[in-house]
Every structure is written in structure tokens, then in C-alpha cells.
Fold:
Amino acid sequence: MAFIDYYNILGVPKTASEKDIKKAYRKLARKYHPDLNPNNKEAERKFKEVNEANEVLGNTENRKKYDDYGEHWKHGEEYEKVRQQEQRRPQYKRQGSYSENDFGGDFSDFFESMFGGARPSQHGSGKQVKFKGQDFNAELQLNLKDVYTSHKRTLTVNNKNIRITIPAGIENGQVIKIKGHGGQGINGGPNGDLYIQLTIQNNTNFKRDKDNLYTTVDLDLYRAILGGELMVNTFDGKAKLKIKPETKNGTQVKLKGKGFPKYKIEGQFGDLFITFNIKLPTNLSTKEKEIFGELAKLR
Structure:
């Protein structure tokens, strides 16, 4: 995982007090807040960086780990356990003079390999603790139409292109795990994983509930009373509906199989529910008013 200088992000020195860090964070958070920078991707990225920096430096325990272990600060507890184990381990003097390998050689090798300047143990017996690399988190923004069909996307994470498949019917907020595409493992440990959270924006006239879709369609008064046919929009085309005579306002009909794809179930779809909104005629002519008057007398 590449080193991130959180002090530099907040614009404060390493000697900054908690008060200074809080003040710098609030100032930058206001500056880059999404509400003040709509549709500004760069401001959105800065806002996330500032929040991440505050989560680390604004927490006393996290800040100490970050100051002690740098980019590996999240593994601080594991490193501390190794150090304590080495301190408790009894050291025995072989015949002859002592050397540095007689005093915690394993511990020294471990930390030198963590932070650079690693060297092999002179006796070839140094033990290194393996750690899984840092997990990475990313966000992918899509439109509802993008997840109606399965398709492939290329993402760039840490200057690496990763080709992933977006399955049809995936839900908003769902997370895709890409194994082994996180930070590099430590001391030969496995790489971390990449977690991609999907944010799905709905810019359509359809409301989605899992694999079902809901929409409202205007129906003129005459067709509602007399019945007839009506062409309506579905998510991927059009469909012809038969309107029953005397259809009431708010009546809901179901188009089976015209909803959203079912997640990871090939060829199966939910249903489309259409609610009718009966529109009353306006700007009536004199003749139309007379006819409605006659109807009123008949009723």
C-alpha cells in the first residue's frame, strides 16, 4: 500500500495539537463538502481524503500507530505482539562472545524487513511473521440502466487496470470483492483484497424494489370509462395494455416478467407494476360541457 501523508493532507505539522488537527479538518471539510461542490469529482476525492486523514490523526490511538509504523499502522497491534513476545523470550549465551543475533535477532529481522534495510540472519534461523496486505476500498457509481444487463468494466486502482464483470440485477450498496487486488502482503503474506461498493443512481421513471419495478401511467378519462388499449413504456421497450371499462383511479396492473433481472439468475426477471393516474379533461368546449351536463342528468 502506498504511503499516504495524512499530515500533508490536513496541512499540519507532525507536532500539531489535537486542537490544530480538528481545526484544519473542519476547515477543509467545509471547503470540499459535496453540498458546496455538486458534481465536482475532484472535490469529492479531496473530501474523502480529508475524512480519512481525520479518522487517523483525530484519534489518539490511531495517530500513535501511524507515527510509529507509517503505512503499516493498521498492523500496529500485530507488530507490538511480536515485540512483546521477543522481550519475554529467554536469551541464552552460547560459548564465546555475545552478538546481536543472541539478543532478539528474530525481532530485528522482522522489523527491518517491515521498514526497509532487511538483512538475513547470520545463523539463518530468523523467523518472520507473515501478514496479509492492506484491504483496499473503492466506490463505483453506475446508473440503473447500467445494471439492467451484465457487462464488463475496467477500473484503475493504484495505477493498475482491473477488469471486472458487473452482474445484471446487482443492488445499490452491494459490495464486490476482488481477491488479491489489495495491498501487497508483508513478509510473503497474501495480498489484501479489493472491495468495490456500488452506488446506483436511478434517473428513470421507474422505482425499483429488488427485482420488481413500479411506475405510474396517465390514463385519460374517456378510456378509463369506456375501456380500450394503451401503449406504455417498460424498462427496455414498450407494451400494449388492454384497459378495462370503468377503470378506477389508482388501479394497479402487473406485467409479469417485465421487471428487473434477478441477480445471478440467468433469464429470469421480476414484474412491472403500473398504477393508473386518471387525468380529467380541461379546456372543455361548449359542446363537451353540454354532453357532460346530459350525462349528469342521466345519473
